[in-house]
Known about the structure:
With 332 residues, the chain is mainly alpha-helical. It has helices spanning 15-34, 60-88, 97-119, 130-147, 149-152, 164-188, 195-212, 222-244, 250-263, 273-294, 301-327.
Amino acid sequence: MLSMLNDVRRPVRGVLVWGLAASALLTGLVWVLGQRLHGVELLPDQGASWYYWKLPDPTVWTRASAWLGYAAHQLVSWWLIYYAQTRVRRYTDGLHRINVIALAANGGFIALHALQTQVFYDGLAQDVSIFSSQGSVVLLLVWVLLMENRRRGLVLTWSAPISAQVVAFARRYHGYLFSWAAIYTFWYHPMESTSGHLIGFFYMFLLLVQSSLMFTRAHTNRWWTLTLELLVAVHGTLVAVMNSGPDGVWPMFLFGFVAIFVLTQMHGVGLSVRARWWIGGAFVVAALAVYSWRGLGRIDEVVRIPLIEYLLVAVLALLIWAGVRMTRPVRR
């Protein structure tokens, strides 16, 4: 069977539209199935570091169902990536058989997690910190900034002095990291039907579609990848509004992530200089308008997320550089 996986093409035009539609449909199914979970008794909320949606009295079976499901999903995904990198290794306008298998595998594990939630409820959240789930997505976003540094620059088209060796490593192994970030976060949560969960699952479904499209032109479509990067601003802002209301920290997420778009991401999709000036100007006007109402003393919120992400790019680059140096064969 493996010998048949390489070169079969299928029409890829519209695959991203189908991916969006399928993700929306799956999100709707999560909402429908979530209506059956309203009777689950949970402990009172205990603050920002507390994950609310986990059973008060977990069992061996509730824990094992989540961890075994996650482990199987993760190992299958990594094997598919490895197979594509070692057997396919070329981009096409159509789908390879491996892409079809990856889409089917992800669909099967989504169904498995839905069943697991209905029977056992708990996700990985029972055993790991809420910050691990959030951190996995942050690491994904920072990895993209590093990986795209030479193509679009890091700040206003200025490229950070990151070695080609580090960037090559980031590009070669990004699929494994992105797969882990998406699948770990997916299994971290039970498939609940709150607004925050639904937005998050829709985003995860899109990331799983992206991971399934390795070695296709759709996988590298710049507008598609930019959309995936920008969706974190939508998700973060909406969840912040839901959790803390209009007086909460939602502007920090909105303007923080959009600031990264203005400084970095919009320079990689071929926008004209005039268009980028208009976008940048609109961002400044919107930020000043919101913080005139919110209080200009809090406008430092705008730079917190960009500063953290750019600092993490430097840290990640140093770690990869050190790892590459340590594992490089010693010349005699």
